[in-house]
Amino acid sequence: MQDILVVVDMQNDFIDGTLGSEEALAIVPKVKEKIQDFSGKTFFTQDTHRENYPDTQEGRNLPISHCIRNTRGWQIHPELERCKSEAVIEKMAFGSVELSEMLKIEHQNDPLKSITFVGLCTDICVISNAMLAKAFLPEVEIVVDASCCAGVTPKSHKTALEAMRACQIRIENEI
């Protein structure tokens, strides 16, 4: 049985760019250490938007252009870009069906013991992808390492952790 680590949207715009925060910046070394110490496979997701972002539903609800493909903000943070990864999955929405389908195939090829999620933002993309993984693989343990996640705000981070806990996602290293 294998373990998988999913690193969600550790991109410049979410760390020190247009949507960055002190909390996001603070988790970068923790995420790097988690990746380096992890013995299973690692997958990254990469929030990806196009120039028409302001015309999308997300753009109308969050009118701050971010993670526009091929910009500095879209790139994985330099501290993490050289870390081991099986794949980088570009995603155009909060949750990635493609990621969940890849995880399901991994499970069919070599059963998964657990899938651990880290990254940004706890209350948007981490929760969306953890919930999708739970739906696609209900018998695989889904874990979120809270010490390697940050939300839009500290309060929304905690709220998302509680919501995931209620959905039988194991929360570890909560501060």
Q: Count the strands?
A: 6
Order of the strands making up the biggest sheet: 3-2-1-4-5-6
Q: How would you sum up the major sheet?
A: 6 strands, parallel
Query: What portion of residues is helical?
Result: 25-40%
Low-confidence region ranges: none
Tell me, rounded to a whole number, the average pLDDT. Answer: 96
Taken as a percent bin, the fraction of beta residues is 15-25%
Structural notes for this entry:
- This protein is globular.
- It is of the alpha/beta class and 175 residues long.
- The longest helix has 16 residues, at 22-37.
- The protein has six helices and six strands, in the order E-H-H-E-H-E-H-E-H-E-H-E.
Provide a brief overview of the structure.
The chain is α/β, with parallel strands linked by helices and 175 residues long. It is 38% helix and 23% strand. The protein is globular.
Secondary structure blueprint with pairings:
Elements: E1 2-8, H1 12-15, H2 22-37, E2 41-47, H3 57-61, E3 87-91, H4 97-109, E4 112-120, H5 122-136, E5 141-150, H6 154-166, E6 170-172
Parallel strand pairs: 1-2, 1-4, 2-3, 4-5, 5-6
Name its key features.
single chain; 175 residues; alpha/beta; six-stranded parallel β-sheet; 6 helices; 38% helix; globular
